[in-house]
Amino acid sequence: MRKVLIIALLAIVVYPIVWMLGTSFKPNDEIVASINLWPQDPTLGNYPEGWSSMDVGFGTFFANSALIAGLTVVANCVSCLLAAYAFARLRFRARKLWFALMIGTLLLPGHVLIVPQYILFKQFDWINTPLPLIIPKLLATEAFFIFLMVQFMRGIPKELDEAAVIDGCGPFQVFLQVILPLSKPALVTTAIFSFIWTWNDFLTQLIYLNDLENITVPVALRNFLDSTGQTSLGPMFAMSVLSLVPVFLFFVVFQRMLVQGINTTGLKG
Amino acid sequence: MAVRRREGIAGYTFLSPWLLGLFGITAIPMIGSLILSFTNYDLLSPWSELEWVGVRNYARMFADDPHYVEAVIVTVVFALVAVPLKLGAALGVALLLNRNSRANGLFRGLFYLPSLLGGSVALALVWRAMWSKDGAVNGFLGLFGIEGMNWINEPDWALSTLVVLAVWQFGAPMVIFLAGLKQIPAELYEAASVDGASRARLFWHITLPGLSPVIFFNLVLETINGFQGFTSAYVVSGGTGGPVDSTLMYTLYLYQAGFTDYEMGYASAMAWVFLIAIAVITAIVFSTGKFWVHYGDQS
Amino acid sequence: MHRAATSHVTTRRSLLLAALAAPVLAACGTEGSQAEPESTAPVELSVFWWGAEARAKATEEALKLYTAKYPFVTFKTTWQGNQGYYDKLATMAAGGNAPDIFQIDDGALSEYGERGVTLDLTPYKANGKLDVSKFPESLWKYGEVDGKLAGVPTGENTPGMIYNKQLCADLGVPEPTTGMSWDALISWGEQIYTKSGGKVFGTMDPSADYKALWMWLRQQGKELYKGKAIGASKEDLVAWFKLWQGARDRKAAPSADIIHEANGGDVTKQLVVTGKAATSFLWANQITEVQKLSKQALGVVAYPGNPSAQWARAALYFSIARSSTKRDRAVDVVNFLVNSPEVGKLWGADRGLSANLDVRKAVADGLTDATQKTAFAFETDLAPKFGQAPPVPPKGHVKARALLITHAESVQYGKATPEAAAEAYLKEANAAIAS
Predict the structure, then answer these.
(1) Which residue of C has its CA nearest to B152?
(2) Could you tell me what percent of chain A has a pLDDT over 90?
(3) What ipTM was assigned to the predicted interfaces of this complex?
(4) C186 within domain boundaries
(5) Residue range B37-298 in CATH 3.10.20.70
(6) Does C30 have pLDDT greater than 70?
(7) Domain limits at C187?
(8) Which range among A254-263, C178-187, C188-197 shows the weakest confidence by mean pLDDT?
(9) C360 within a domain of the structure (yes/no)
(10) Distance from CA of B278 to the nearest CA of A (A)
(11) Considering the domain boundaries, does residue C31 fall inside one?
């Protein structure tokens, strides 16, 4: 019964993706003229054409994206975990104020920050480098993940910390020995989202990366389209399908680590 | 006393990267945009032509801009409908796929696929194809004898397709729910099962309270996301908010003001009004938290 | 009004904004220093444009030709698809980091020109460093904003109505012609609809298209923009909206939901491409790309009405940043790009038909592609009929253009009467361009 329900839902949810896959095998003029699921006149050509396009080729764009997304994962996991531990477990002056400010940074629509940020990063001489995409993450500027981790940590029973404190642990040991091991679901979730969102981020990567050799997949995909002129829909669809593969694999591998997080009895001893 | 001080020092030590980021990177552009919201900043003119205009940008929003009012209405309607539906879908599927098995791992990945698309450039074409006159949605409705329309191109219906799009991309809250479910101590279930509790009782008395911090998180974040809802409106309407302003989400209008009309001062003012409005909504959600969110650190 | 208040707030303003302004002011300070064009010290120029791969290849090739001539000049090129181009360009300009040479269109030229981002090229034209002597006069003048030459047209382009040639033959309907009246087009459209058994609508409804409205107004001796105001009266707009309301009622034009698809301007969604109507209101040179997407033979004629309302319009421009420290060299590069016959051959009709008439002729003679030939022939036939060029659209045009779409669509969808829409458009569009 459960299986039937799942499969019925999946059919609906996945249909548009299957359509996308089918479209990636259509020639350009058929994509424009017909929205059928399967190509009338199937071709494999979009894949090699897209892959080798723009001189540099998509291999480089995938590598650039993977590098930036990978570094972002590490940076977010480390920096946000530290901040989250402070917010969730430690008592210090002005904690509530800082927490409110942290939530506040989530609320301002990002478009008004683009230009001030650009001016700031230009002062640092970071334009046309990946630094504006990575250094901020090292400094826990993604408040989303801090808040996420705070919520997870607050779900960890306090008795565990208290037991550790009674055993003579200070805040650092509690972090290393109690909180860190139990934060795996939060870290896995952070890793998954960091990777996927960075993989898909368009505007920031567009603005800070100038050289063709440095651009990432989302930017490169839009290079197929000059909506008033040449538009290569076929290669664009083909590369869009390919660009789903790494993130899909990343997801499937990492979600396996979402396993039972707490086995309190074992720790209490 | 010494313990408290030690904890205070530890607190600021752990917080130091974030503080550095706040003051070095996040705060400066934010304050910059706040200052610019009181000016006629247009991105391109030399700084020497920048003028302080007081609250003129703020007054214009409420007194002299019919499109702004439309954008507020569109956004509120969207958020009120899309957020509960998306959270419901995410929680439902997370519960269905909670048990770890090889099949469930694959299913989770497949359910996550739409979210992997994000705001991808292909999405615009995919979504238009699904909802066009002879597209899949109408094909499906046809099975029940319903004749559909050109949904995205109808002012009365275009926003509904964005709601469906938001719900379709429920992967992120689903994963958070899944992770939250994993964190509920298994022993609680074991103890309750020994007492002979029914599955419904387990759900109401163990799963929901245990999951409440994560439900709370998803509610707060999806509310913020729902109101911000830029990407889908941008992608599906091609950045226009059309037809006839029917998908003109607040942040899309703000983006247009800043980057296509070169009225960044006005856009910044809109952004700060948005921040205050969402802060109030978020504060209300937070204040309800003490009635229904159960933290492990409060036992 | 607020200008009067400037003086007494200056101190406060400068205090508050000193931090933000510092980097840009610093960039302004370098204005005086100019690299000598005769100097052979190595110099690198940044060039930025939008387009797809074919344009990128042709542009890189053209720049290589320049480097071959002057080996000490190299280029740092950045290109992208059109989505996000102006976001990035505006961000770079706002950050005091505008590229030395950048591509721009007539929608944005005034925005950048009036605000002083672009270098005034008039002195270079006067001293011959920038040679536009072989350009049609109205064409280079279409690069002037407030009396300053803000951009050099890369090529000439004219709005063109692209129609389905094949379909006309199949249905036995005569092809539309240059000079046919708007009413004749609508009657023709009705014929297409009837003879195709209701399968194809006759003509796209261009009531949301500023190009079509502008042409229609000029045919009555008016302009879309008159200084910093809309040149059309409420009655004009009502008549325009009603003309097309009538066309839709007669089924000469499709329903609003279909029109809306094409109003975005994306070539892949144009109705001649998707087969939903027999005409599309585009730019003449777009026929080369539109034809690639369609299996049916297409043709191009002028927008309906008297073709003397048309003028030599710039397809795109190259502008030079006023903040550039290598202005003289940048001017020389642009001069090369628009006047070199080799570059003309590389580019074909991609950035419009070469602005330099000698180059254009050389390019036209060497053409092999049938569709490109059509585009060149169309422009050559039309050129003698061109009328006086109006000034380039003012600052605020991009917003006014979007407002026309919103309000014309509200008539198309039946959400507003022509009168109400005309009034709202006039009020809002006037406000958008007045500032």
Answers:
(1) C257
(2) 65
(3) 0.91
(4) yes
(5) no
(6) no
(7) 159-309+396-434
(8) A254-263
(9) yes
(10) 7
(11) no
The reported pLDDT for the residue numbered C375 is 85
The Cα-based distances of C46 to B76, B169, C151 in angstroms read 44, 40, 16
Residue B191 touches partner A, C-beta closer than 8 Å = no
- pLDDT tens, position by position, B83-108: 999 999 999 999 999 887 888 888 99
Residues C139 and C191 reside in one and the same domain: no
Query: Which of A112, A120, A160 is the best residue to mutate to test the B interface, defined by the most B CB atoms within 10 Å of its own CB?
Result: A112
CATH number of the domain encompassing residue C185: 3.40.190.10
Residue of B nearest to C27 (CA): B46
The domains of chain B are located at 37-298
Number of folded domains in chain C? 2
> How many CB atoms neighbour CB B170 within 10 A?
26
**Cβ atoms within 10 Å, residue C201:** 26
* Domain identity same for C346 and C366: yes
Q: In what order do the strands lie in the sheet with C155-157?
A: C313-314, C155-157, C353-354
> Distance (Å, rounded) from C-alpha B77 to C-alpha C224?
37
Of A148, A186, A262, the CB nearest to B185: A262
Are C365 and C412 in the same domain? Answer: no
Mind listing the pLDDT tens digit for each residue in B140-195? 999 999 888 899 999 999 999 999 999 999 999 999 999 888 888 788 888 888 88
Domains and CATH numbers, chain A: 1-43 (no CATH), 54-268 (1.10.3720.10)
Q: How sure is the predictor about B7, in pLDDT bands with cuts at 50, 70 and 90?
A: confident
Nearest to C194 by CA among C270, C247, C252, C234: C252
Q: How far is B143 from chain C (nearest CA, A)?
A: 23
Do C267 and C292 fall within a single domain?
yes
Residue to mutate among A111, A137, A224, A226, with most B CBs inside 10 A, is A111
- Tell me, what's the pLDDT at B199? 83
Q: Which of A93, A130, A151, A255 is nearest to A205 (CA)?
A: A130
Return the structure tokens found at C282: 């585009």
Judging contacts by C-beta atoms under 8 Å, the chain C residues touching residue B34 are none
Asked if residue C86 and residue C185 are part of one domain, the reply reads no
Tell me, what's the pLDDT at B298?
65
